[in-house]
Amino acid sequence: MITRKKDLRGGYPLWAKATGSSVRVRRVLKYVTCDIAVVGGGVSGALTALALVDAGFDVVVIDRRMPGCGSTAASTAMIQFELDTPLTELIDKIGRAKAVRAYKRSLQSVKHLKALIEKHDIQAEWADREALYLAGDELGWRGLQHEASLRKTAGLPSRFLDAQTLRRRFGIDRTGAILSKGAAEVNPAQLTAGALKAAQAEGGARIYGECEVTHIDCGDDGVTLSVGAHASITAQKVVLATGYETVPGLPSNLFEITSSWAIATEPIAPSEFWPTKCLIWEAADPYLYMRATADNRILAGGEDSGLNDPERRDAAIATKSAKLLKAIETLLPGRELKIAYAWAGAFATSPTGLPIIQEIDEMPGCLAILGCGGNGITFSMIASEIATKWATGKTDKDADLFERAGKPADGKRKRPY
Ligand SMILES: Cc1cc2nc3c(=O)[nH]c(=O)nc-3n(C[C@H](O)[C@H](O)[C@H](O)COP(=O)(O)OP(=O)(O)OC[C@H]3O[C@@H](n4cnc5c(N)ncnc54)[C@H](O)[C@@H]3O)c2cc1C
């Protein structure tokens, strides 16, 4: 088995039954050949498949579940260039030049994702937003002010707001914040389905659902994926977009599978939202983040923990969702909020907050994608671009940033991954 099947999420995610999130799939697979096979039909596999089709490749996508029904369905889908690791900290870890490059690539990929959605007319409730990063116990106002000035020097669209301005503009009582342009919100289920449908329609991508890759055989003439004992896909190259069901050969000391929780409230009146419906998140541990949805709910998440046990993760949904609701009410008092959806999901973290996008030494011809941290979807977009260059035999200019998750420059790790 190339990836162990896991219980990726529990509870009731908001998107599980989103309209426009189903894709027509093939279920019977015998012997298939193609240029590039993509294992995994979550947001990473879907964006990669579409980018490959756009580049002229004959693509097959295969998923052991229905596409979009893995971790993608649990995402809160805040789209940001700002990484979980502040620029200040990332500079300490991988050096200034690389850290600035990672932030800039992330900013560019959010723009590219929007352009892709527009190009293929994907209906995914995309809305441009600003993002408000609040001071908390991990970074106070001085830290945020320094972070904002570093970002400004790097040409990133962020600026510091002092406590007074923050209170006046957003009614939020914190010692400071960073306000950034270039963020967005999206419906991840519709984005994934829309990208796969576009790949099917425009390049004739073949998409197999509820078919599991059990074995990989890498030879000089290409890669063969066994699908059980009596079916296979032979491709020149393979992209392993298997999410948190990770493939062997990834540097397991450079990522950790953890848990995260989320809630969506019942819809509220549009007038009850905070100004501009910006994304809100905080420099705190445990942290809270939140956004609006197209149907006027507050979607919030956080309370992350190192727990990697689905039963205990799901048992904690009631407690964690009560804490998330309380945190929203403390930050934005005066609203009557009711939880409509509460769920939990597996999550991945890395020492740098960067994703892992790299060839697997033991599997020549295979590129693996693991989106670590809270920017998984931005990283899916970056991965789709890197994979497309790789498929054409070229190397993306930023590929080095994501090999071995941007291994810290001094080779040391601050946390025991
Ligand atoms: C609670 C939560 C909140 C989040 N919030 C955000 C956010 O606000 N913003 C953001 O950008 N990111 C967020 N993320 C992260 C983001 O959702 C993920 O990074 C992203 O959805 C991962 O997509 P994926 O396609 O890599 O994985 P998946 O969606 O899990 O897709 C991988 C697919 O591979 C398939 N697969 C695995 N092995 C095999 C096999 N052997 N054969 C066939 N198929 C196989 C699986 O069935 C699965 O469908 C959040 C995640 C969680 C859990």
Task: Tell me about this structure.
This protein has 417 residues and is of the alpha+beta class. Among the domains are: 9-75 and 189-252 and 355-405, FAD/NAD(P)-binding domain, CATH 3.50.50.60; 256-349, 2-Layer Sandwich (D-Amino Acid Oxidase, Chain A, domain 2), CATH 3.30.9. Helices cover 29% and strands 27% of the residues. α2 (87-94) packs across α3 (96-119). It binds flavin-adenine dinucleotide.
Number of helices: 10
Per the CATH scheme, the topology name of the domain at 9-75 and 189-252 and 355-405 is FAD/NAD(P)-binding domain
Name of the top-level CATH class of the domain at 9-75 and 189-252 and 355-405: Alpha Beta
Q: Structural class per helix/strand content?
A: alpha+beta
Question: What best-fitting shape do the alpha-carbon axes yield?
Answer: globular
Number of strands: 18
Characterize the main sheet: 10 strands, mixed
Mean pLDDT: 94
Weakly predicted, low-confidence segments: 408-417
| N-C termini distance | 24 Å
Order of helices and strands: EEHEEHHEHEHEHEEEEEEEEHHEEEHH
CATH-assigned homologous superfamily of the domain at 9-75 and 189-252 and 355-405: FAD/NAD(P)-binding domain
